[in-house]
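Quick one, tokens below. Sequence please?
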């Protein structure tokens, strides 16, 4: 009698674990489908935007490197070769450890 109760309890626990595992897998598939079906967010061409931003810089390699870092983090680059920070507040607010503007 005790053996059948423990066997029944074990089978119940195993079936519950299997059921929860199957639910978790189906939820994961639904998340993957919803991500795949959602429209992709447009990414900015950081190389092109930074090349335009840094074209008049006296140190173009340094400018493009800093601009590329800022673009990757903010996903935007202000128009023109300088200024226009109001178009991209994230880009404007990024600073170095010394408190200077990081982004050209």
């Amino acid at each position: 009698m005790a053996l059948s109760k423990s066997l029944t309890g074990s089978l119940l626990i195993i079936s519950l674990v299997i059921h929860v595992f199957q639910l978790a897998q189906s939820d994961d598939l639904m998340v993957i489908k919803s991500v795949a079906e959602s429209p992709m967010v447009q990414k900015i061409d950081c190389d092109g935007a930074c090349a335009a931003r840094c074209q008049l810089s006296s140190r173009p390699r340094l400018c493009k490197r800093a601009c590329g870092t800022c673009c990757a983090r903010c996903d935007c680059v202000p128009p023109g070769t300088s200024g226009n920070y109001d178009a991209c507040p994230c880009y404007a607010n990024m600073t170095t450890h010394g408190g200077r503007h990081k982004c050209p």
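The longest helix spans residues 2-37. The chain has four helices and no strands.
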